[in-house]
From TrEMBL, chains A, B:
One of its GO terms (biological process) is tyrosine biosynthetic process. The keyword Glycosyltransferase does not apply. This is Prephenate dehydrogenase. Residues 10-294 form the Prephenate/arogenate dehydrogenase domain. It catalyses: prephenate + NAD(+) = 3-(4-hydroxyphenyl)pyruvate + CO2 + NADH. It is an enzyme of class 1 (oxidoreductase). Its EC number is 1.3.1.12. Belongs to the prephenate/arogenate dehydrogenase family. InterPro entries: 6-PGluconate_DH-like_C_sf, ACT-like_dom_sf, ACT_dom, NAD(P)-bd_dom_sf, PDH_C, PDH_N, Preph/Arog_dehydrog, Prephen_DH. The keyword Glycoprotein does not apply.
Length: 370, 370
């Protein structure tokens, strides 16, 4: 397949060569494009070149060569310098389409507009990919594979710029979604920034809990606090940049929290139980709306758990046999088993295959525990 | 292995034969004990007998037989009737040790004490096991395998009662932990009840979110809201019964939430960024204290993701090869891939095996994406 972007774009300059910038560079070089990388840190820029993300602009200039005029500039710098670098790129490269990939969109568009830059050549985008490590060493050309990439053209954006932005997302293997910048920011506030805040608020309660109490923690606590392990430096920038939509949601959370606290202070009062039930049911309703695998409509799968020796060989054999039985796995998870070397593999399958599969696995000697 | 409980206990009466009661019955029958089940619902009691959880007391009496005097009574009824049924069991069976398995302990001990019952023969316990389904049909004798079972004797409990309670937990395959009732309730408030509340509060924000926005949801939202799908009826009872410790924690959450809202309302103010960073770092600190697999000390694993065809066969082959390479899997997860039939398998391993494993998998042609 000839990538669409390769047919329409000459040299590409990637500004900022951390995890995301270097991954964009790697992905575009794989597609055969001529990529150049620039970073405020000379070391980061050199590492990005070393891993094959593109030619270092500093190295180029040290060799007495000129940066070829880019047709596409991707600004992949930290959120707090994106406006400045985007405005600068639009001015320095008057033929280039300039895209940014920061996780907040409306404030950046507003900033670029306020600077009087040429908005016909600018499109904000947000690839929803990442990993726990940062820096160019962690970069992978396949980082965007199957992840959403939201393209958020402002009203001034020209057709060529929009088309280049869409092609970039598709060519790097991402799933393209179009949104207004404001709509994007409200969406990520709700599906990403507020969950991050709630997870951090919850996890911070555990700072002084004795470890032998925490050893009783189940998968529920692990799941609800996993993202609380994220990088504070990055989240300061994201939360500051998207403060308004996040605060609006947090006010709603506080209303519900206040109501619950008032109720639990008098749990025997008339209506208290109904009030708690209502709050829990509202949580049920919200949770049920999150789409399942493959981005389809919300769907309920049947779930069971198999106790296995905790070795990759045994889990592999289990999955092989599920395949032999002819049932497709919708989700699976290896659960932690406090204190014992037994693995609990939780498997989700289509409800209409559930009973047969459990019977067949038990017949084959597997320990289906729940 | 001769189970310790079988050597010390005659007939066992299980009162309440839902998921947990029937699972206790099944597990004890597996150990060769003589088990009788009683439930307020004749149907539930009959189903429990049908699945082999024990002899139905109603069926016994209809056949003109007498219930043999039990040496152990396990009260496995819903939290709101546990005190009444425990007091009644202590009075009706003056030789029996009576245990309950409800998820809150101090209010039950207080209730049984207030009724003037014989506390030397009573011990409250809490097996931390469950599943998404309820009722005796969902019961499994292995439900408690590798799960914590907290035994919380009150100050009046006698040695025989404590010993029977410990043996029950161990014989059913659980991991025994001893705690004071009050300490137990504070612990579960923090590691189970407050996480449930936070997950429900977060998920209820999604009630009116358009589905095409929710289709951008990543694993973070899925993980933080998973337990919001829990049964409201059960949680009303748990939260009402453990209201005080839960409310204490929720007040602390509200303090942090208020602070964050105030900060985000003026994100450009002096000190705002530091304040957000602090809150995030506190979340980091709490999250890092949750013990990892096998209940050991907190431990960081190295994580990478492999893109695979989304079939059980391929995932099985991946795990087989990881086993061949000789690396032990610490955790794994199959991630959802919105819109594309590609599975992303995230694998956690010991940090010192990480680099070798990734190199070897890539050499074997696996697509390590991040």
């Amino acid at each position: 397949m000839v990538p669409a972007i390769a047919t329409s774009t000459g040299p590409v300059l990637v500004i900022g060569s951390g995890l995301l910038g270097a991954s964009v560079g790697l992905g575009l070089r794989h597609l055969g494009l001529d990529v150049y990388v620039r970073d405020s840190s000379p070391t980061t820029e050199a590492v990005a070149q070393d891993i094959g993300a593109g030619r270092s602009v500093r190295a180029l200039q040290a060799a007495g060569e000129q940066l070829p005029e880019p047709e596409l500039v991707v600004v992949a710098a930290p959120p707090d310098v994106v406006v400045e670098l985007t405005v600068q790129a639009l001015a320095e490269h008057p033929r280039a389409v300039v895209l940014d990939i920061a996780s907040v969109k409306a404030p950046i568009l507003d900033g670029v507009r306020a600077a009087g830059a040429d908005l016909t050549r600018y499109v904000g985008t947000h690839p929803m990919a990442g990993r726990e490590k940062s820096g160019p060493v962690a970069a992978r050309g396949e980082l965007f594979t199957s992840m959403p990439w939201v393209v958020c053209p402002g009203p001034e954006a020209g057709a060529r710029a929009i088309s280049v932005a869409k092609n970039l997302a598709v060519d790097l293997g991402a799933t393209l979604t179009m949104m207004e910048p404001q709509e994007h920011d409200e969406t990520v506030a709700l599906i990403s920034h507020v969950p991050q805040v709630m997870s951090s608020l919850l996890a911070s309660r555990l700072q002084d809990t004795p470890l032998h109490h925490l050893s009783l923690a189940g998968q529920g606590l692990r799941d609800t606090t996993r993202i609380a392990g994220s990088d504070p430096g990055l989240w300061v920038q994201i939360l500051s940049a998207n403060a308004q939509p996040v605060v609006r949601s947090l006010h709603e959370v506080r209303k519900d929290l206040d109501r619950l606290i008032a109720t639990l202070e008098h749990p025997e009062a008339d209506g208290a139980r109904l009030d708690i039930a209502q709050l829990m049911a509202e949580g049920n309703a919200g949770q049920a709306r999150i789409p399942g695998k493959h981005g389809g409509a919300p769907k309920a799968f049947s779930t069971f758990t198999v106790a296995v020796d905790d070795t990759p060989g045994t889990i592999a054999r289990l999955l092989t046999e599920i395949g032999e039985i002819g049932v497709n796995l919708e989700d699976m998870r290896l659960e932690h088993s406090p204190g014992q070397p037994v693995g609990l593999v939780t498997v989700s399958v289509e409800p209409n295959r559930y009973a047969d599969l459990v019977d067949e696995l038990q017949a084959r000697g597997w320990k289906v525990v729940q």
